[in-house]
Amino acid sequence: xxxxxxxxxxxxxxARPGHAEDLIPDDVLTAMMSAxxxxxxxxxxxxxxxxxxxxxxxxxxxxxxxxxxxxxxGAQRLADKAVSDPEELARIxxxxxxxxxxxxxxxxxxxxxxxxxxxxxxxxxxxxxxxxRGAATALGADAAxxxxxxxxxxxxxxxxxxxxxxxxCNAIPETALxxxxxxxxxxxxVLTRAILRATDETGGPIAVITGNGHARKDRGIPTFLARxxxxxxxxxxxxxxxxxxxxxxxxxxxxxxxxxxxxxxxxETQN
Length: 271
Hints:
The protein is α/β, with parallel strands linked by helices. It contains 15 helices and 6 strands. The protein has a single domain, classed as Rossmann fold, CATH 3.40.50.11550. α11 (154-167) crosses α12 (177-202). The protein is globular, with a radius of gyration of 18 Å.
């Protein structure tokens, strides 16, 4: 029922397309179009957030789009053919197996730009390896360059672990929290690496489709970009629901909250 409700909501939003100037303030559009990297945050299952991302891509006209939801392998398969059929796109990207919300939400974003797709999703096997052997090991030789071999300050580590505990409904052992924080940092690093490769190969500007957690300026991708390529001009858009969003952004656009099941119910059924 949840998937059906989300799909219906996506179809309603897609049936009422807007224009960038209607959905995105003029000053935000201007800032986006002058940036080298435009990071477009989202709540993954909010269809309106993807409509706004699509309009932003049309305005920015990026030379490449980096996707959190696409693996590097999937992006390479996609590069071999032009896809206008959503079912074929889903097959090529193995979308259903990936566990992301329905492709119907993201399809307008794919359609909004014909720029090359760069995949930055950490495959599940790599995420499991990171849990077992550490995030730095999973990134290989690049780990030190991206700062993954350096522990976070104790107070920041504690805040991030508390955020992870809350995100998992206070239902996971505290011993797992350092690993979850490390994997989040790994995903930030992999996204950053894809952005830099896309910049070097296409010249930019680069757009990034990712969750608000990776987009946020106080701990996400922008902190890695500042470390790796401080000369890049980065603009970060966060997207809130009914005014609620965590983190720092250059601008925030608000959308109505989506009706969804309580995510904590999944943990209750496991007990």
